[in-house]
Amino acid sequence: MKKHLLTAAAFVFAAATFASSALAEEKFPLWPDVAPGAASSDVKPTYEYWKPENKTSDSCVIVFPGGAYEYLTLGRDAKQLTRFFNERGVTVVVLNYRVPRPKNAPKHLLAWQDAQRVIRVVRSRAAEWGLDPEKIGALGLSAGGHLTLMAATSSQTASYEAVDEIDKLPSHLNFAIPVYPAYVLEDGANGPNANRGIDSPTVADFAFDDMTPPMILLHGDADAYSPNGSIAVYAKLRKMGIPAELHIYANVPHGFVGNPPSGKPVDDWLNRVDAWMKKLGF
How many CA atoms lie within 13 A of 147 on its CB side? Predict the structure, then answer.
């Protein structure tokens, strides 16, 4: 009984710790009325604003969940990321972008529109939230990693027509954190790689324009969505002279974010991100 009481107390303490660091969560509609391409105003993508209890940074990390562009992997993934950055004084915005994949359009189009919009929204609220509008980054997982790359490499390509004054603001990111990004290579453009991504070019989705920001990429080498995608992006950034960092973890499969500690180096991946952000001034 005593052991059970201690376990329960530990659980309550952990829950209270998370709540104390993220009590400021608020949810807002992303678009003023009907989202581009939506059939009705019933389609309402949202974003969540998580303000740290002890705000020490003027940067913001926007989280793009994964889910194959069919659903959103929120839950433990978003909680782990929000808690980590909030505890370090960094503001977090979680984007609940539109899924599932649209018919007769690129799989990522609606999500990309939502991504460009949320970056502009965060930039529009920077003064209100005490942020530097040029310290906005994105961290995406799997399909969200692909979406992070879309937002990071193609901000000079409009994904939708402006709907209000917010859309006059730029949609570029200042840093990007693609985590096991999917759909990066032609071999695996819509699913897992059939040939392990060997000798496959990157998809034509990414423009790699002149506003492409620094990146840190993280991937497992046992991932069905080949780490060769992250390697190819890293090589492209290096060729362009854009600061980049790459971590490939041995014997690690897809979806390691949110997993319990494994005793492997991958457990430390968020600390690698934290050190990289500090090094670059974010």
Answer: 35
CA dihedral 188, 190, 192, 193 (to 10 degrees): -10
26: buried, middle or exposed (CB in 10 Å: 19+, 13-18, 0-12)? exposed
Q: What does each C-alpha distance from 182 to 22, 52, 228 come to in angstroms?
A: 29, 30, 11
Listing DSSP states for 65-129 in one string gives --STTTS---THHHHHHHHHHHHTT-EEEEEE---SPPTTS-TTHHHHHHHHHHHHHHHHTHHHH
Q: Token pair of 167, please?
A: 């859309």
Cα angle vertex 189, ends 176, 72, to 5°?
60
What the chain holds in terms of domains, given with CATH numbers, is 24-32+42-280 (3.40.50.1820)
pLDDT at 12: 34
d(CA 257, CA 113): 25
pTM for the whole thing? Answer: 0.90
Tens digits of residue pLDDT in 85-138: 999 999 999 999 999 999 889 999 999 999 999 999 999 999 999 999 999 999
The one-letter amino acid at 214? P
- Answer for the pair 138, 115: CB distance below 8 angstroms, yes or no: yes
Q: 185 - beta bridge partners?
A: 202
Q: What whole-number percentage of the chain has pLDDT above 90?
A: 82
Q: How confident is the model at residue 39 (pLDDT cuts 50, 70, 90)?
A: low
C-beta separation of 270 from 278 below 8 A: no
Query: Is it the case that residue 21 has pLDDT exceeding 80?
Result: no
Sign for the pseudo-dihedral over CA of 244, 245, 251, 256 = negative
Check residue 270 and report its DSSP letter: H
SS3 (DSSP) at 267:
helix
Query: What's the pLDDT score for residue 8?
Result: 35
